[in-house]
Amino acid sequence: MPRQAMENLTESMFYVLMALQQADACGAEITAYAAQISGGTVRLGPATLYTLLARFEKEGFLADAGSVGCKRYYHLTAAGKAAYEGERARLQRCLDDAARAEITAPASLTKGDARDEAASQGDRLPSRPQPVL
Where, if anywhere, are coiled coils annotated (predicted)? Predict the structure, then answer.
């Protein structure tokens, strides 16, 4: 089933909404917040940032919060807050699943696969292709 637009947010999208969770902000403030909170791993260039802001505004996630000089400020709407919280919950479920996977593997992974069973019975199946590095 194809994903719908805005169903899962990209990292950049998530950090833009995270910044606006804190307070109304202009583009420069959003960029600085994302870089600071991520320890510099998220860098929003102007093209990415303003494309996302326009897209979020079109989707109803953001509203114009006014201007000061040449700076335009953005406000997170209820729909934007819901999108942020939904993505945050989805990411938390992924982390919870990863934590559970470290503790116990599903039975389908611990029983072995057809190659292991065939090898124990003396049958030879073609070897698994080796990854190209």
Answer: none
